[in-house]
Amino acid sequence: MSAEMRRKEERYAASIDDLLPSFRAYERPEAEWGLGVEFERLPLDPVSGRVRGYNAPFGVADALRGLECVGWKKEKIGGGDSRYVHPDQLGTLTLEPGGQLELSGAIVGDVHAAVRQMEEEQKLLEEGTRHTGIAWAGLGFHPFSALDEIPWAMKPRYKIMRPYLGTKGKSAHRMMKQTATIQTNLDFSSEADMAEKMRVASWMTPLLVALFANSPLSRGKESGALSTRSLVWRDTDNDRCGFVRKAFEPGFTFRDYAEYLLDIPMFFTVRDGAYVRMTHLTFRQYMEQGYQGERATLADWELHKSTVFPEVRLHGPIEVRATDAQSPSLAPAVIAITCGVLYTADARAALLDLVAPISVSEVDQLLVDAARLGPNARAGGHRLGDLLPELIDIAAAGLRIRHRLDSQGRDESVYLEPIIELVKERGLVPAQALLERWHGEWNHDPACLVRAQRF
């Protein structure tokens, strides 16, 4: 398409009112609410636990070629980047900067379907990459490889993100290359419903960080944090990370979120199939002034929405981004907890009652303390570890109310059983259980750790 033809087809963004329909377009009646789940995995050597680099022998590049042999098809997307899609509608696979693989699952109706999708993708991943020997591990942070030991998997967008983020936070490159997460995406029916869910998800974030902390090692030693991943995000880019402050308040609106996004520096736009660096402008400045003869478009806005990284993000659906990547046995619990709380009105109200003693002024420090100390963090006169069993109970009650049954007649609360056993019966979170085994039965053997976390 010529530049002239493209300009004729573009829909321009001239004011904030032009941007608000991009949020309203995602309103769904409750009967149509779905789940979208994004899983990231670290590419580890199964014996040493160290990174398998992108271009290393039997590395990630070899693994991607193997995925094409089991049905994944490579397709180009904007800016020259690419992703992999599967004809069985499993979602998309994308490559992260340190060679992590992310499955963005197709939208499904319930937790049962999300888990089946994860298991199907897991089988294909194992089959397609078996020849490499890579162990795809569910951990929040690289346990044995230092930052400079992990090569960049340099997609075109990272050529802009890498230098810019390097000026914003000391841990930005660690975030890009060493971390992995599980993200759950949920629908909303109206602006008011969005506001309530954003509020509840924001308050729930420190609890999720503590409950699913799963990254206590760095370079083979204890890092000093139970969720090293979450702590790294605290020192990545204060402009685009952390909390959306107004989301803690009742009556949060689409306009409030748009105002938040407008004053965050951009990364890039896409013109004629290539990324254009835009880090010197906020989207508000771009919308008001333009740049080199170009005007802001709604496509630019959608791209900008995807390059801002708060703990709870409104990018289409509501994205809850607080948790470390988990082992296959615990990953379904992340989805179940998030769905059970946010998709049931009674559960949302119960969550707000649970955190009522905590003030908004404490939340930022609580997030840091939850990453460092997990259940031993304190706020509002409470130890987080005393609230975590109640969080699980609230989610379980919400899932029972949803009453989505599998072929064996079990509701979605069945996926909470592993986290119930760990937290309520043993008094541990994943990172504490991992350290207990690391210093005990595993005798500091990386192969044992990788085997336990491997997909």
Q: Could you describe the 3D structure shown?
A:
The chain has 455 residues and is of the alpha+beta class. It has one domain (3-453): Creatine Kinase, Chain A, domain 2, CATH 3.30.590. Helices cover 42% and strands 15% of the residues. It contains 19 helices and 17 strands. The protein has helices at 3-9, 16-19, 21-24, 60-68, 111-129, 158-166, 172-178, 191-211, 228-233, 254-262, 283-289, 298-305, 331-342, 345-354, 360-373, 384-402, 417-425, 430-439, 446-453, and strands spanning 35-44, 73-76, 82-85, 91-95, 101-105, 135-137, 181-186, 217-218, 221-222, 241-242, 268-271, 274-277, 309-310, 312-314, 318-324, 378-379, 382-383. Strands 1, 2, 3, 4, 5, 6, 7, 14 and 15 form a nine-stranded antiparallel sheet that branches. The chain has a two-stranded antiparallel sheet with strand order 8-9. It has a two-stranded parallel ribbon with strand order 10-13. Strand 16 (378-379) and strand 17 form a beta hairpin. It starts with a helix and ends with a helix. Mean pLDDT is 96; it is low at 1-8.
Q: Could you give a short description of this structure?
A:
With 455 residues, this protein is of the alpha+beta class.
CATH fold name: Creatine Kinase, Chain A, domain 2
Number of domains: 1
What CATH architecture do you see? 2-Layer Sandwich
CATH class: Alpha Beta
By DSSP (H or I, 4+ residues per run), the number of helices equals 19
Distance between the termini: 43 Å
Unreliable runs, pLDDT <50, ≥5 residues? Answer: 1-8
Oligomer: single chain
Q: Tell me, what's the shape?
A: globular
Taking Cα atoms only, what radius of gyration do you get, to the nearest Å?
A: 21 Å
Q: What about the largest sheet?
A: 9 strands, antiparallel
Strand content: 5-15%
